[in-house]
Amino acid sequence: MMIWANVTEDELKEKKEIQTAFGETLSWDYLCYVRKNPVTWKIPTHILYGEKDNLTAYGTIFEFAQRTNSTLSIMKNGEHWFHTEEQMKFLDEWISKSAK
Questions:
Q1: How far apart are the C-alpha atoms of 27 and 74, rounded to whole Å?
Q2: Model-level pTM?
């Protein structure tokens, strides 16, 4: 999100919080917190990722899935927010398959 907002780490550190044009607030304290407290994942997890996700890069979700030993399914032409009839149908079917 910092890249999208054209914000450097130094700028965020100096300003502490920066409101983005896409409605999110970037926070230096939050960035420091997540760096100091990496996620520890110990439960079975299945991730559904939209191929055209414009919020989370594929490399990010792939690395997370690898690190947490999660399964990763990708919906061709899916987005970050599943909302179309086709996407919701895919989601319903994916949930049914993943729950078994």
A1: 30
A2: 0.65
Name the one residue in this structure whose structure tokens are 């990763």: 72
Closest CA to 74 of 44, 46, 48, 45: 48
Tens-digit pLDDT profile for residues 29-72: 999 999 999 888 889 999 999 999 988 999 999 999 999 999 99
End-to-end CA distance of the chain: 35
71 CA to centre of own chain: 15
**Which H or E run contains 65?**
helix 58-67
- Give the separation between CA 56 and CA 14, rounded to whole angstroms: 25
Cα separation of 39 and 6, whole Å?
26
